[in-house]
Structure to design on (296 residues):
């Protein structure tokens, strides 16, 4: 089999995504399968709608009664798959172009991990979701394929990527339940690829993220990610930009001072970041301030 498309899913309707991918695979004339694994969703409505995926040829919707986390789900999908190449896609993605699958299949014979990228559209952004949207739009020009390829192992976003099954079997995803944030997972994944000298190729073949969290949720997830980063700092090391910045601040004895400033001004920062016109600059300040505070 040429390709297995693997989609971890939790409380999200992805039947249209699967249908769009199936159409493209049929047009490519490849042998394929699409596996969607529900990770113990609590939303009965989304689960019921996703069951319709089983009516599509070569598509399977698998239900699991309890939540195990994204990494655990991905590993199970790998174990169930039969394709020579595995295309991992998040369930909240939308396919923007008709050549999405064919663009990946151009790299099917390469023993490399291929990352396609991620985009955000304002139509998927609600009035209370401006922080994540503004941050992602600010970051997009820095994450073109050309820019990502300059530091291939440090610019990974596993929202949308393909790798040979032989590589997936060598590098299982870290299903440590403390890893709750995708950024930390992606950093560890990049370190594993680099350690094993597995080539990484970045291409401009993005998917749209259709699930942009509201400001309060995004800020909370950011704080949780920073707490996790603190726990994993020895494991991640200098592959984290924030850890490198904090290390430099600590070298010049500025980390404690920034932590004190953060505690004093965090209510003002939160007021801006959870409002209707959040500042990306203040969000960056919030991250380094919050991290400096929890490190002391």
């Amino acid at each position: 089999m040429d390709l297995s498309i693997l989609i971890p899913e939790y409380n999200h309707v992805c039947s249209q995504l699967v249908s769009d991918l199936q159409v493209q695979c049929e047009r490519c004339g490849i042998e394929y399968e699409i596996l969607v694994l529900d990770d113990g969703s609590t939303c009965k409505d989304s689960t019921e709608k996703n069951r319709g995926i089983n009516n599509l040829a070569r598509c399977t919707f698998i239900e699991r009664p309890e939540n195990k986390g994204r990494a655990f789900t991905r590993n199970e999908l790998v174990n169930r798959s039969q394709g020579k190449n595995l295309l991992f896609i998040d369930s909240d993605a939308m396919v923007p172009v008709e050549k999405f699958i064919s663009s990946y299949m151009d790299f099917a014979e390469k023993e490399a991990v291929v990352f396609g990228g991620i985009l955000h559209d304002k139509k998927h952004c609600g009035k209370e979701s401006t922080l994540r949207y503004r941050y992602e739009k600010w970051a997009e020009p820095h994450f073109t394929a050309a820019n990502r390829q300059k530091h291939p192992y440090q610019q990974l976003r596993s929202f949308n990527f393909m790798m040979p099954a032989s590589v997936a079997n060598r590098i299982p995803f870290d299903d440590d339940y403390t890893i709750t944030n995708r950024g930390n997972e992606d950093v560890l994944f990049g370190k594993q690829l680099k350690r094993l000298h597995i080539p990484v190729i970045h291409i401009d073949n993005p998917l749209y993220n259709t699930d942009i969290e509201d400001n309060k949720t995004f800020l909370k997830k950011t704080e949780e990610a920073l707490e996790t980063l603190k726990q994993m700092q020895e494991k991640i090391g200098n592959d984290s930009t924030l850890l490198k910045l904090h290390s430099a601040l600590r070298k010049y004895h500025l980390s404690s001072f920034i932590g004190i400033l953060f505690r004093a001004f965090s209510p003002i920062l939160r007021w801006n970041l959870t409002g209707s016109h959040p500042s990306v600059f203040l969000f960056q300040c919030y991250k380094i301030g919050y991290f400096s505070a929890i490190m002391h």
Summary: The radius of gyration is 20 Å. The mean pLDDT is 91. Residues 255-273 form the longest helix (19 residues).
